[in-house]
Amino acid sequence: MFEVNVASVGSVNVVSSDNGGLSNDQIADMAANKIMYISDEAPEPIRLQAEAFKDRVRNLVQYYVELARKEERATICAKVREAGQHQLADAIRRL
Amino acid sequence: MAIAQAMCTAFKQELMLGTHNFATNGNAFKLALYAEGSGGKSSTTATLGAATTAFVTTGEVASSGTYATGGGTLTKVAPTTSGTTAFTDFADLSFTTATITAMGALIYNSTNSNKAVAVLDFSSNKTSTSGTFTIQFPTADASNAIIRIA
């Protein structure tokens, strides 16, 4: 006889924002959660080490998310300025 | 509780009948959002759980931003195995410029008569106001993936 022991559904994480898109912190948290899962049942020394590493990964991702957004804004700003929309370009630059 | 997280019982049966194909070129699956009680946008309360057999409109949140009633299409990740566990995954799903209050979601097969797959319970009302509403799926492994058979 063959028996399927468990058929289960994982837990999703909902991330939301108001009056705009997700923040750098929210995106960095999402990325860190995808990169690393730490079991609640892991032995404490291992869990603490894993959490410290996850925190470093999160901070690194956060930095590059911020940089990517800044560079993307700079490109958009340049294109908008090229099109003669100087005020709009300045508004985008100040974001 | 009106929305209870579960793998739908009918889905388990339909797996044995070959109704659902999670291959990347297989069936199309969607995720619809639901409100519960007065916290949601809908005036009706969703009742979802293991007994759910297909997509229902009762209690679904209203269209807003990029969310249209019926839900968003999920991008599948081909099923795979790890040890003795088989699992499948979806890419995270985002709705932008949306005003949404949702308590849970239903994943369903929009290719095959909107048959239900799984009910997701968010535990509390999650809200976005003219913002982004993202559903992040768990790590795709034998212990956490969204749909697992061990």
**Count the helices of chain B. How many?**
1
Q: What fraction of residues of chain B sit in β-strands?
A: 35-45%
The shape of chain A, in one word, is elongated
Biggest interface, chains and residues, is: A-B, 24 and 36 residues
- Total helical elements of chain A: 3
**Total count of strands of chain B:** 8
- Spans where pLDDT lies below 50 across 5 or more residues of chain A: none
Structural class of chain B: mainly beta
Beta percentage of chain A is 5-15%
SSE string of chain B, helix = H, strand = E? EHEEEEEEE
Q: Could you give the distance between the termini of chain A?
A: 63 Å
Amino-to-carboxy terminus distance of chain B: 27 Å
Mind sketching the topology for me?
The complex is a heterodimer of chains A (95) and B (150).
Chain A (H helix, E strand, L loop, with lengths): L6 E3 L3 E4 L1 E3 L3 H12 L8 H39 L3 H8 L2
Chain B lengths: L5 E2 L1 H8 L12 E6 L37 E2 L2 E7 L2 E6 L2 E17 L5 E22 L10 E3 L1
